[in-house]
Amino acid sequence: MFIDLHNHSLYSYDSNRKMEDIVLEAIEKRVDILGFSDHLDFNEGDPGNEYYNGCHQLKEFDSLKNKYSSKITLHLGIEASLEKSYEEKILNVFDKFPFSYKIMSAHFVKGTVISDWIKEIEKDADNIDDADYSPYFASLKSISQFKAFDILGHIDYYKKYSKFLRHDIIFEKHKKDYTEILKRIIGEGKTIEINSSGLRHKCREQFPSDSILALYKELGGRTVSTGSDSHSRGDVAFHFNEVYNIIENFDFKVYKPNKEKKCFP
Q: pLDDT of 149-160, one tens digit each?
């Protein structure tokens, strides 16, 4: 059974995929449970600012859910970026729509989109060891303290944009930060995501790395959600055989969104 809860449609500013096309691809790839998690952003100056149209999406989602009910289980989720300045706006959207689950992700650092932020802190290759990644972890900590979500998305997302494959070094340097964040996630009954999109990028590994997953397990983490972060044709359930092998190796349970928020082996 494959569950892919991280997919972006034309209701995200950075995807032009029709929801029905995503559903058909998921059925073709034998996905059993598919979730839409379009972007919810309120960062001024960003192209995704207030782009999301939940009213239109909900109407289309209900139609697709009925049309394909015999072939696949569909869920409507959301992926939100968090900054303190627009926390209330996020909560208003959460209250307005019947999302099965909510993913919170660090897409911005101090109001700057993470791709630009990484480029800035890594611009001096000769002094890369002095690069300060701590603001990213401050963003993650802020998210982990937010109550109204279910899944912490792609926790080491900086890997996507980093020019330097120093992820193990960064992990060791910020292990205390990861520990604090993961303890809070576990303690509040939330989960983290294994996101296969990293396998499409330069880092060539899933988000998060095995080191982070091992720490999560050591701290008492038992469940993970699974997502491809699809934006384009061919990305749904990307490398999910590999993802599910990782899950089996760590003996995690897979998060399944429903009213009871149960998990299954």
A: 999 999 999 999
What is the distance between the alpha carbons of residues 255 and 234, in angstroms, rounded to a whole number?
A: 23
Give the separation between CA 137 and CA 152, rounded to whole angstroms.
13
Token pair for 33 = 């449970």
Asked if 40 contacts 52 with a C-beta cutoff of 8 angstroms, the reply is: yes
How far apart CA 141 and CA 128 sit, in angstroms, is: 24
pLDDT, one tens digit per residue, over 28-40 is: 999 999 999 999 9
CA 115 vs CA 30, 107, 234: distances in Å: 33, 8, 24
Measured distance CA(184)–CA(171) in Å, rounded:
18
Domain positions in the chain are 2-264
> In terms of DSSP bridges, do strands 112-113 and 108-109 run parallel, antiparallel, or are they unpaired?
antiparallel
Return the CATH fold of 2-264. TIM Barrel (3.20.20)
Count how many Cα atoms sit within 13 Å of the Cα of residue 19 in the half-sphere of its side chain: 23
pLDDT per position as a tens digit, 107-164? 999 889 999 999 998 887 666 776 889 999 999 999 999 999 999 999 999 999 988 7
